[in-house]
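Dear U.,

Please find below the material for section 3 of the report. The protein was modelled together with S-adenosylmethionine; I have listed the sequence and SMILES used, followed by the predicted complex structure.
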Amino acid sequence: MSYAGKKRKLDKTRQDTLYFDSYSDVTIHEEMIADNVRTNTYRTAIFRNSESIRGKVVLDVGAGTGVLSIFCAQAGAKKVYAVEACSIAEQAMEIVKQNNVEDRVEVIRGTVETVELPEKVEVIVSEWMGYALLHESMLNSVLYARDRWLKAGGLILPSRAELYITPISDPVVEDRLYFWYTVKDQYGVDMSCMSDFARRCIKNSDITVSTVAVEDVLSHPARFAELDLHSVTAEELRTVKGRFRCESFGSAAVNAFCVYFTVTFPCSDKPQSLVLSTSPFKPETHWKQAVLYLDFPVEVVQDTLGTPNQERDIEHPHSVSHAHSLQGRPAAYHPPPQSAPNTNAMARGAANRRAHPTWDLG
Ligand SMILES: C[S@@+](CC[C@H](N)C(=O)[O-])C[C@H]1O[C@@H](n2cnc3c(N)ncnc32)[C@H](O)[C@@H]1O
């Protein structure tokens, strides 16, 4: 193997070690189990699919503390293989015993890419979603498990994922930039030149995970990508992107985009499927929302095109880089029917939601 090839392999091993170490600590599991939107939606989805789970063999990809495996056993699974790569598997074994399901739940320590199961499975369950959906790249492991271990026609929980985007006017970032203009008044030292540097730092910081307030959202969200877990391939995950169009609620300065996701569980006992949503309009989850900052604020205008683009860095499979652009200038601006003052504060207010200038990003 070439030097570059060996280095890539070493880097990947180090990345995997760091990644799995982060799941060996209690904090992350505490956060996930305490997220009752997340955990209850999985629990409900598993119980609503008990017809398809009862008497069946299940694979839990990345079992962590084993919580989903135990839900599956409680829903009547004949056998659950709880595959977990990191040392939290030892706690999972204890939890399985404490819940008297060790006859049906077998915790296997190892990566799903390397473990050997004695049989194929009828159901795969996994909680693989990272920030902005793909940040952890764990979905690749689920796809590997699907192709290697799922019987034809098997069930995947969840079975679909969707990505949404909406422009926002984030007041926090503008306050942070303005802060450098206030230093002179406080200390007699002019630091206003720091504002540009601060903007570059914030802009360069990949995604920011934070709770987006609904009053900062400037349009109805647009869905820009959808993944069908039965058919999507690892190759297709290398670039997930799509076009979108948003109609602003009112005049505003757009300084960022909010990206969030939903995952959908089919329900064998109900006509409607079950959706786990990380929308700013839904109860908060530990994923919060992902914020992508623009270089500069853009006044709400018509016919401005942009494309959100989530590209996975193949050398760093547990990270994701985002590229997004806002190109073009306002070709035309049509004031809304009830024209409102063009200020951020007004744009965020409910009163301005009656006004609807339109704009495009591409
Ligand atoms: C987001 S946590 C979910 C844990 C648990 N299923 C739950 O819902 O609380 C993902 C878990 O998957 C494990 N994991 C990630 N990739 C894996 C792989 N390729 N093979 C086995 N385990 C993996 C991580 O160590 C982590 O414990």
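For the text of the report, you could mention the following: The CA atoms of residues 44 and 308 lie 33 Å apart.

Regards,
Y.
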